Amino acid sequence: MSFKDFFYFNKSDRKALLFLLLLGVGATILFYVFSDPKNIDANTPIHDTVFAYRDVHVDRYGQQPAVYYRVEGRQIELFPFDPNTADSTALLRLGLQPWQVRNIYKYRAAGGVYRQRSDFARLYGLTQKQYRTLEPYIHIGSDYQPAAEAVASVNKTVGYGRDTLRFPVKIKSSEHISVNTADTNLLKKVPGIGSYYARQIIRYRTRLGGFYSTQQLLEIEDFPEESLPYFRISKHDTEQIQRLFINRLSIHQLKRHPYIGYYRARAIVDYRRLKGPIHRWEDLSMLPDFTPDVIARLSPYVSFSE
Question: Which Pfam families match (predicted)?
Fold first, then answer.
C-alpha cells in the first residue's frame, strides 16, 4: 500500500491504522529498553528475569525497590509458626514453595486442621528434608490441639485423676445448696447436676421469678429426682420471689410467666377491661383457665396491688 492510498480510507479507518502503528512503535521501544544487558545482572537466573525487570522499572521512577520472594535462591528464615494460622508471607519465608502454600490454604479452606506436628508431614509435596527442618518450629495452638492432650496436660501438672477432672467435687448428703441463690458452679457440685441442668435451673428460676418449693425443679424436663434432697429453700428465699402485678402488666408481660401463658394472660386482661381491677382470686376462679391447681401454683407470685 502506497502512502497516497492511506488518504482513500475514511476518517475512522485512518485513526485505527495510526493507533496500530503507534502501538507497534511503542512495543519496539520497550523491547529494546528492557532487553538492554546493562539493565539486568548477567548472574540473574532466567526464572528471576521478571523480578529484575520489575525492580529496574521501579528504580527508574525514583521509588523504593520492591522486595520479592524468589522461588529459588531466596534466604530461608526459621521461626515458630502454627500451620493452622500462618499466612502466605510467613510460609514463604520458611522456604515453602508457592504451590505448597496453596495446598495448605486449600486444606484449611476445606475444614482441615493440623492437630499435631506429624499432621504437617502429610502436606502434599513436602519433602522429608523440609519436614525435618521445620518440625522443631511447628507450634500448634491450644485451640487446635486434641482435647485428650489438654486433659492429660492438666492431670500431669495438677496430679488429679481422670475421674476427678471429669466430675467436679460433689457435696455430701448432709450438705445443702440454696436453689434460689446458687450460681452454675455451685449447682454443679450437687450429685446428678452437670452444666446442662445447672443452666436449666437458672433459666427456669429466672422465668418463674424464684422457686418457692424444691418440687418445682421436677418441672424441668428429665430432671434427676435423686438430686432434690440436696437443695433447700429458706423463708428468706420465698420473701425474695418476684411478684406479678396482674393489674398493671400487659398481656405480653403476663404471658412470659410459665404458669400463665397466652390464654390466661388474655383472660386476665379481658377481665380488667370488662370489670376493672382484680382484687382476689375469687374474681378469676369462675374462669375455666384458672382451676384450683393453677391458682395454688400462681399464689406465691401474684400481687393484686394496683
Answer: HHH_3
Write the class of the CATH domain 177-239. Answer: mainly alpha
Write the single-letter amino acid at 130.
Q
Angle at 64 between CA 59 and CA 68, to 5 degrees: 90
For residue 45 the three cell numbers come to 537466573
The end-to-end CA distance of the chain, in Å, is 106
In the beta sheet, which residues pair with residue 302? 244
DSSP label of 181: T
On the question of pLDDT at 47 being above 50, the answer is no
Using the Cα atoms of residue 177, residue 181, residue 186 and residue 190 in order, give the sign of their dihedral: positive
Burial, 103: exposed, middle or buried (Cβ in 10 Å; 0-12, 13-18, 19+)?
middle
Q: What integer pLDDT is reported at residue 191 of this predicted model?
A: 92
The closest alpha carbon to 304, from 251, 249, 252, belongs to: 249
Residues 6+ apart with CB under 8 A from 70: 45, 47, 48, 51
Q: What is the DSSP code (8-state) at residue 169?
A: P
Compute the CA torsion angle 214, 217, 223, 224 (nearest 10 deg). -10
Q: What is the mean pLDDT of the chain?
A: 79
CA quadruple 262, 264, 266, 272: dihedral sign = negative
* Number of other residues whose CB lies within 10 A of the CB of residue 207: 11
- Predicted TM-score (pTM) of this structure: 0.46
Other C-beta atoms closer than 10 Å to the C-beta of 298 total 18
